[in-house]
Amino acid sequence: MLTNSIIDEVNRREAALRVIKSILQTKGRKGFYDLTGLAGGFPILSEDKALLETYAGPAVFDDAIQTVGKIHLGGDKVLALNRTSSGILASVLAIVKPGDEVAHYLPKSPAHPSIPRSAELVGASYIEFDKIEEFKVEDNTSLVFITGSTMDHEIITQEDFRRVIEICKAKNIPVAVDDASGARLRTIVYRQPRAIDMGADIAITSTDKLMDGPRGGLMSGKGEIMQLVKSKAHQFGLEAQAPLVAAMVRALENLSPEKILMAFSAKHELKEALNNQFSMVKETPTGIMLTPEAIEFELRQIETETDLESDDLAYLFAMILLRDHGIITIPAVGMPGASAAIRIDLAANDAERIGSKEIAEAFKKTFTKLQSVANNEEESKKILYS
Ligand SMILES: *Cc1c(COP(=O)(O)O)cnc(C)c1O
After folding, report:
1. pTM > 0.90
2. How many A from CA of 105 to the centre of ligand 1?
3. Which of 209, 211, 231, 328 is the most exposed place for a label (fewest CB within 10 A)?
4. Would you place residue 12 in the very low, low, confident or very high pLDDT band (cuts 50, 70, 90)?
């Protein structure tokens, strides 16, 4: 195995950032294509900047985020946080006690690591379900998470969502929804109601997923519970500061369902273009995905010898795609614990600059190179970490 620890994951991410920096220096911003769907945009206006230099910043933007946040998520009270993970942690700190259980229903495991890690931090047990028939709560379950759309964009059905809420309501257990990408994918693409409108107590979304905002967490929910979460967030410095909140407000004002819907229809063409080479390529709501298992399968088909695990093959694929073709995907730049699946998100801004044929060609060449290094540990390590 080439990736054995969080440290290896951090080293890979840093190697990827070095590659991006060197592309920027030689070719400029047009030298790479960020197709992660995580834009990290910072669309503040020039008049906003002046406000950030005074005490007016928090006064103005904390107020504005209440309005636009409620339009997006529903609920009574909005809280802006540094990340979705920060919001998940703040909810667990506020609601869960040592010895409690945190249960989680999601359309397909694994969960985002922030949920089990937060449970562990407060000394609670954690249980995860991805089959609705099996979902259950115990007497000591004090918080239930629902994931609306997983890291790989598997979407919960409205029926399953409502079923989990029903089970929790019957026992008075609060429900928090990890709707990082789901707040847009579920509602815009699949026309599901907002999480809070289906009875969730808390919903949290990521302002850089499928929208052109900064990396940040936007949470909304019922007044009383939000007051508790907010107080924990402030105690531990999890809340977003005025500059981040300002950018979140502007990004929410600019939110355009059209781009997401266009990506939803453009993905078929990309899948077709990739199908010749990758028989197991899958469609996601706004793009395509090649799982680590799919990559391993293709290598086996052509009898490539390798001792590498499927995740390592996916990380290698992502790093070659970046180094040779300037295409950024999450397995190259993601935080530790992020999914190893190669996902192309056509709702990303940079998707306008690159066509399906070009992406398919880059995938083909990347696969050929992967095949040539899959049995060469030294070369593989160089690609991952140097
Ligand atoms: C992205 C994501 C998160 C974490 O978002 P951060 O802003 O990186 O903390 C949590 N859950 C899911 C399902 C996600 O897709």
Report:
1. no
2. 15
3. 231
4. very high
Residue found under tokens 């290094």: 373
CATH of domain 6-31+257-385: 3.90.1150.70
Which of 9, 151, 205 has most ligand 1 atoms within 8 Å of CB, for mutation?
151
Mutate to test the pocket of ligand 1, among 9, 117, 155, 206 (most ligand atoms within 8 A of CB): 206
pLDDT confidence of residue 40: 79
pLDDT score, position 235? 97
CA of 162 to the centre of ligand 1 (A): 22
- What is the model's pLDDT at position 5? 87
Q: What mean pLDDT is predicted for residues 39-54?
A: 87
What's the mean pLDDT in 178-186? 97
Other Cβ atoms closer than 10 A to 21: 10
Nearest CA owner, ligand 1 atom 15: 151
Q: Is the CATH code 3.40.50.12500 the one for domain 46-254?
A: no
Residues with CB under 6 A from ligand 1: 83-85, 112, 114, 147, 150-151, 178, 180-181, 206, 215, 217
**Helix H or strand E segment including 101:** strand 101-105
